[in-house]
Amino acid sequence: xxxxxxxxxxxxxxxxxxxxxxxxxxxxxxxxAHAPNTGNMQLYSVIVTRDEARRRALxxxxxxxxxxTGCQVMLTFCADFNRFEHWCRISDAVPGYGNFQSFVWxxxxxxxxxxQFCTIAEQHGLGCCYLGTTTYNAPAIADLLELSDRVVPxxxxxxxxxxxxxxxxxxxxxxxxxxxxxxxxxxxxxxREEYSYKESLPESARxxxxxxxQTLAQxxxxxxxxxxxxxxxxxxxxxxxxxxxxxx
Length: 248
What we know:
The protein has helices at residues 3-7, 22-32, 52-58, 66-70, 82-89, 100-123, 138-145, 174-177, 188-200, 202-210, 216-224, 227-243; strands at 44-49, 73-80, 127-131, 151-160. It is α+β, with helices and mostly antiparallel strands.
């Protein structure tokens, strides 16, 4: 696999009607499960939703964004201590994992598993889209998927064969994200330089105009990820996580 595969990967939001072979899906998930994880505990589960009616039932929890309604398969990756703790209890071991540190382990493991699957799927010609709404509406997703205690949705992948070619997303230059030996803070001029390309893109100008803002940063702070929304959904997710037995 060449470096170009990674540097030109695209998020797919529009899918064809071509079905995803169940055997291929199982093979990809099995390969993805070899991703690194904490203590080889594999603190995750994934719920595969292929049935169209069930996918449509889940879509509102993802604000019915096109990728959620048009994909062939929806994969909900969950931090899962239920299985591991059950094994501990029937093996005369006393689990002590209802805490923040343990939850973070499981979230990291889940994210790595999901990303390994995403890469494998793309290598097989499939397209994937992360649905960032999973943490917004975790209670509704948990109800629909009948998740047990100690199981918390973390990320969802919409999967299918691409219809057409998806656009290539811009990225910050390497100088913006890589620090040598120690963290080097940024001057105002550094920040302007690192974000200059992103701000110069035609789609950035369109976002600014459509949202009635003066800068691209305002689109993020005032519209896409506004403080009130962040606080609202933070409380929902925080309370849900604690309701599942994790003390944060």
